[in-house]
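Q: I'm building a small set of examples for a reading group on sequence design. Run inverse folding on the following structure and report the sequence directly after it, with nothing in between.
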């Protein structure tokens, strides 16, 4: 099982997250819903969303995010870098057709200086995990793990369900407070329960806003096809449609399976294997090189 134990701050944050979900479940169900509605549909719905949030959090935390295998070997020898063309013969060597790919200037594969494995083009080394991670977006202390190709779906679902239970709980608390103000004699809540409810309301507002911001950031990175760490390095992916970008993350076309934290699809596993074999960036076209020269 994948478990990061080298980061005490991350372990504390992950445990705190689960405790806050459980606390909100207790206050919302035990103090707000049961005395007010009894065993109603809201109890089952809220408990279901809380359970899904916990499962998604656990899967995001304890799943391999997409670490490059330690046994990754250089299967085929790589030719040395071709010599730079001379000024007199460049016109004969450089093709005139702008759509002909230009070969990489340095075909030697990268080797990570820290984990000592061949480093695919889409991999970044995470100092906390101690591994190179494929399509790494960032290392999140709240799940004590990297968010990458294999667990980004779990992370998105975790944010979604946390947002749902924050709005759900906050709405129920506001309705309950309003009822108690208008029917003070019929309100049986004690002072201690009122304090717990107020703390839960603050939690719902603060973490609800925080999660909405995180979800916006994640969706922006997905729609731009540029993980967070790539954006910091000014590396941008190829533009594609929003739906297509979500299909890449979830590993399958839209269906009810998107909302359940199932294991990565076979398509995602195949994409991971493909990324592990992709050691170089896509070849640049001559027109792209011309644009870069003009920009510089």
């Amino acid at each position: 099982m994948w478990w990061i134990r080298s980061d005490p701050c991350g372990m504390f944050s992950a445990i705190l997250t689960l405790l806050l979900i459980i606390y909100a479940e207790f206050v919302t169900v035990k103090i707000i819903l049961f005395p007010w509605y009894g065993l109603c549909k809201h109890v089952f719905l809220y408990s279901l969303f809380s359970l899904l949030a916990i499962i998604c959090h656990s899967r995001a935390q304890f799943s391999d995010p997409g670490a490059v295998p330690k046994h990754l070997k250089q299967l085929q020898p790589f030719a040395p870098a071709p010599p730079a063309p001379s000024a007199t013969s460049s016109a004969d060597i450089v093709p005139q057709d702008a759509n002909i790919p230009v070969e990489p200037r340095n075909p030697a594969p990268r080797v990570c200086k820290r984990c000592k494995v061949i480093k695919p083009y889409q991999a970044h080394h995470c100092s906390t995990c101690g591994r190179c991670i494929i399509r790494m977006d960032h290392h999140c202390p709240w799940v004590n793990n990297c968010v990458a190709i294999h667990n980004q779906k779990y992370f998105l679902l975790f944010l979604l369900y946390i947002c749902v239970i924050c709005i759900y709980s906050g709405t129920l608390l506001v309705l309950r407070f309003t009822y108690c103000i208008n029917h003070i004699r019929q309100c049986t809540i004690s002072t201690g329960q009122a304090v717990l409810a107020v703390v839960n309301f603050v939690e719902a507002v603060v973490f609800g806003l925080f999660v909405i911001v995180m979800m916006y950031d994640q969706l922006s990175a997905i729609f731009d096809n540029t993980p967070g760490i790539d954006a910091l390095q000014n590396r941008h992916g190829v533009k594609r449609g929003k739906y297509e970008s979500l299909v890449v993350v979830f590993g399958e076309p839209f269906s009810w399976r998107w909302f359940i934290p199932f294991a990565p699809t076979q398509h995602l596993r195949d994409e991971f294997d493909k990324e592990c074999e992709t050691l170089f960036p896509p070849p640049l076209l001559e027109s792209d090189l011309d644009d870069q020269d003009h920009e510089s």
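Residues 114 and 130 are 8 Å apart (CA to CA).
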